[in-house]
Amino acid sequence: MKTIQKIIGIVFFLLLPLFIQAEAKEIPFTLDDRDRIIRTEQKVEALEMKIDTKVDGLRSEMNARFDQLFNFLWAIIGIFTTMMVSVFGFAFWDRKLSLAPMKREQERTLNSLRNYAEHQPKLREILKDAGLM
Question: What is the dihedral of CA 44, 49, 50, 53, to 10 degrees?
Answer without folding.
Answer: 160
